[in-house]
Structure formats: C-alpha cells, structure tokens
Amino acid sequence: MRADAERSRRRILDAACEVFLERGPDAPLDAVVRRAGVGPGTLYRRFPDRTALVRALVTDLLGRLAEAAGRARTAEPDPYRALRRFAHAAADLRMGAAIVVLLERLVVDADLVAARARAVAEVEALLRAAQDAGQLRRDVGMGDLVLLCVRVSRPLPGGLAALDADGTLVHRHLDLALAGLRPGGGGGDGAGEGGAAPLSFEQVIEAAGRPGEPGATGMAE
User: Fold this and answer.
1) pLDDT in tens, 16-43
2) Which of these, 25, 129, 135, 192, could form a disulfide with 105 (CB 3.0-4.6 Å)?
3) Which fold has domain 1-48?
4) Tens-digit pLDDT profile for residues 111-164
5) CATH number of the 51-208 domain
C-alpha cells in the first residue's frame, strides 16, 4: 500500500474509533468522514459499508493491542512494569472500550480470528510472567484486565469530562486499580483461593454475543 493511501486509511480508522466510542456503533458514517478529513469516496473505496469498516477497525485494534503488549515486554524486564506499561498504552488508545462497543456489529472473518489469537497470546504472556514472578494475583485473567481498561478509559459523561481534560485522570485511576491486582492488594489472597475465578477474554466475548447472526456466540468461535 502506498504511503499516502496508508495515511488515509489510518485517518479513517482513527476517526471511526473516536466516533463509534462517542456515538455508538450506529453513528453516521458521514461523521467518520468529517472527523477523518477525507471525502466520502475515499472511505467507501476502502470500506464499502459499515460492516467492512467495523471489521477492519476491530482487526486493526487487536493488532495494535498485540503490538503494545509486545513492546511492553521488550522495553520492561520487570514483569509488573511491563504489564503496567501495556495497560496504560491500551488506555491511551482506548482499544478495549472501542472493541466492546463494536462487538454487536461485528462479522468475523479469518483475518480477525488470527488478529485476536495473536492479541490474546501476547497479553496472556504478560499476565503469566507477572503471576509467575509473584507480582500479580492468580485470580486475575485477561478478561479482568480488558474490562478494567474498558471501565477506566471510557469517556466521562457530560460536564465530568472536564475533570480529565488532559487525560491524566484516566492514568491515575488505572494505577489505583492495578495496585489492587497485586498480591496483598485486597479482595483476595493472591492465589485465587476463596475469590472469584479469573475472567478469560473468551468469556467476555461470549457474554457480548453477536446479535443478528443466527447461532453465533461471539468472536470466540
């Protein structure tokens, strides 16, 4: 793909992520066009309909999620610091929140399944390393981490958004939440005994489902 075409594609996907987060998966595509600063023809040549755009966006987000996890593991030899670095990168990109918002509009293809498998493998490697080092409670699963990032990174409603105008409040709350995932952080004994079972990413996808697709149970299939 030529550099200018890739830049246009990147602008469209970034704009779509912002618009869908703000206005939901049924937001008008004209809003995506305006946010991206491209013509309607540019969008529709690359993504002929909403289904294609949503599928491409989720595939892209999963790829970026995997890359963020890989970079964190390479940059930080300490397992907990690597996990924290990844969680903050994911919050900045609002990846998890966007994926959850778009699940009901998602039609799965082979590229998306492959992107999801890579993302799950990368993030679970971070979790296992932190748990094996005794730096993360055993009752924390990837689903717990993803939903934590979703809850923290969703835009605040109405006037409350002014409290996080510079984006720092998201990271403060994320650090507070991550501290509770460390052994001795509260809510469990660090070994998963007596607490809830870890929540997997498969369970999150299964719970979200895919309305409109008979017999479908989510991205896990």
Assistant:
1) 998 988 888 899 999 999 999 999 999 9
2) 25
3) Arc Repressor Mutant, subunit A (1.10.10)
4) 888 998 999 999 999 999 999 999 999 999 988 888 888 787 776 777 887 877
5) 1.10.357
